[in-house]
Amino acid sequence: MKRLFDFIATLIGLSVLVVPLLILCILQSIKLGTPLFFRQIRAGRHGVAFSILKFRTMRTGNGTDAERLTSWGQLLRSTSLDELPELWNVLIGEMSLVGPRPLPTLYLDRYTPEQARRHEVRPGITGWAQVNGRNGLSWDEQFKLDCWYVDNRSFLLDLKILWLTVWTVISRKNISAEGHATRGEFFGSHSSPTPDNSITDA
Fold first, then answer.
1. Cis check: omega of the bond before 102, within 30 degrees of 0
2. Given the DSSP bridges, would you call strands 49-55 and 96-98 parallel, antiparallel or unpaired?
3. What is residue 104's DSSP assignment?
4. For residues 172 and 160, which has the higher predicted lDDT (pLDDT)?
5. 1, 159 in Cβ contact below 8 A?
6. E strands, the chain, where?
7. For an engineered disulfide with 115, which of 7, 13, 103, 111 has Cβ 3.0 to 4.6 Å away?
8. Where do the DSSP E strands lie in 6-162?
């Protein structure tokens, strides 16, 4: 039922958003040039790798996230418009509308067995952690919320998360982790904070 809902809802969403997406692509080409999209290999269900698709928000080249993040990219992130291309990942079954956010595959061997349970379901565009603190959470807090979702997932919970996501996006809270343009790298539950170096988005 979840996959059927994802597929139908995404088809409807894409049909409604086709014109806004085209406008965003035009603006993206003016503001940042090509490539329009950012792709990165992320871990999906059962840890299977896939290529996530997002609007690019940073200039190409060397430097930290903070140095490469543009004002246009900051606008895309603050409104979560950079996430819209992920609807394609949902449509082809690599992601779900709701689930733990997909993270880089290099994290796979850094999770505890409990944290790794977040991969028992398809990753989502939004999730329980995203409506309960987003990037303002510590990694440990996020993974606890992810695992709570795995244990308590239901169609009604997904609808609740989608509804709460609207208000999370409108409030524009916790877009970035404190002290970072995006978020620092996860090295494990007992690791030290790291510099803000192009870990999860671009």
1. no
2. unpaired
3. B
4. 160
5. no
6. 37-43, 49-55, 96-98, 124-126
7. 111
8. 37-43, 49-55, 96-98, 124-126
Pairing of strands 96-98, 124-126: parallel
pLDDT of 196 above 50: no
Interval 173-187: pLDDT, tens: 655 555 555 677 899
Q: Which residues pair with 51 in a beta bridge?
A: 41
Q: pLDDT tens digit string along 27-85?
A: 999 998 889 999 999 999 999 999 999 999 988 878 777 788 889 988 998 888 999 99
Q: Which residues contact 6 (CB under 8 A, 6 or more apart)?
A: 90, 96, 97
| Count of beta carbons in the 10 Å neighbourhood of residue 118 | 26
For Cα atoms 49, 109, 39, give the angle at the middle one, nearest 5 degrees.
30
Question: Token pair for residue 196?
Answer: 């803000």
Residue 59: Cβ-neighbour burial (10 angstroms; 0-12, 13-18, 19+): middle
Residue of 60, 4, 61, 1 lying closest to 32 (CA atoms): 60
pLDDT of res. 25 = 94
